Amino acid sequence: MSLITVGTMAFDALETPFGKVDRIIGGSATYVAWAASNFYQPIKQVSIVGGDFPQEEFDQLAARGVVFDGVEVVKEGKSFFWSGRYHLDMNTRDSLVTELNVLEQFNPQLPESYQDCEYLMLGNLVPAVQQSVIRQLRNRPKLIVMDTMNFWMDVALADLKETLKLVDVLVVNDAEARQLSEEFSLVKAAKKIMAMGPRFLVVKKGEHGALLFHEDRVFSAPAMPLEVVFDPTGAGDTFAGGFIGHLARTGDISFDNMKTAIIVGSAMASFCVEKFGPERMKEISHNDIARRMQQFSELVNFETATV
């Protein structure tokens, strides 16, 4: 059985209050793969790149158990490129350049070797593309997790709602949850969104942690207080990779285990922001992850006195 991740493999140019880089590797599927591969292999990638995407990056991910039979390489084309500038608070950013390039023709075709999918991670893409991938699988995966964004709520809401009917877990940030549900209260928003199809909802709140909703149950996870947030690009995708990687490793998709998966995802995201791009993800060891998980445990561990 395998974990499939669908998303972009791309180039980014970034400027934050702590520095600037002109061209580094990025993309949702890239970050998901780096995070999830710490917990589960093989990871079968679905994406599209141009002939400019470095072979070295393929090789590094392949060494981590990532398979690229589902990645289309358009040798004469250019990979997706995004450039952005972050504000001082690191929570807001300006998109400076977006070049779809080969992504504009992305029409994924799953190879036969991908039909053993047990866990499916749909990165932020056109909802119709996400839906196409689901429908190409002859057997429904044990768990389908989907990421999306406000842009698709603006321009492809009908397709987005159709795709939501097919997934188990939706991952969005708090502003996106409010926009999709038209509710300010995140509790009310969660109920409306889960009525659209997903049985579970994860709401990311950046430096304020994350919320997990299922039926009438809610779990609140903290974020790791960091002295320096160097680059938040890809943190949400890294969170998703840690989340689904843990679930795939344990084979347990219960609410209680998803609470642990939220912490794992938060721990992975806390590493991601420490350097530009996925560079920090390439460095960390299992011992680093274990220590960070222990730090998260200490954040929320307390005793109540007897009254």
Walkthrough of the structure:
- The protein has eleven helices and 13 strands.
- By secondary structure, it is of the alpha/beta class.
- The chain has one domain (2-300): UDP-N-acetylmuramoyl-L-alanine:D-glutamate ligase.
- The strands form two sheets. The protein has a nine-stranded mixed beta sheet, sandwiched between helices.
- Helix 3 (127-136) runs parallel beside helix 5 (157-164).
What's the short version?
The chain is of the alpha/beta class and 307 residues long.
- Calculate the terminal CA-CA distance, rounded to whole Å: 51 Å
Unreliable parts: none
Oligomer class:
single chain
In total, the number of strands is 13
Q: What would you call the shape?
A: globular
Q: How is the main sheet built?
A: 9 strands, mixed
What order do the helices and strands follow? EEEHEHEEEEHEHHEHHEEEHHHH
CATH-assigned homologous superfamily: Ribokinase
The chain-level structural class is alpha/beta
CATH class call: Alpha Beta
**Secondary-structure arrangement, i.e. CATH architecture:** 3-Layer(aba) Sandwich
Task: For the largest sheet, list the strands in their spatial order.
Answer: 5-4-1-8-9-10-11-12-13
Task: Give the overall pLDDT as a whole number.
Answer: 94
With helices defined by DSSP (H or I, 4 residues minimum), what is the helix count? 11
| Relative strand content | 25-35%
- Binned, the helix content reads 25-40%
Rg, rounded, reads 18 Å
Predict the CATH topology: UDP-N-acetylmuramoyl-L-alanine:D-glutamate ligase
**How many separate domains make up the residues?**
1
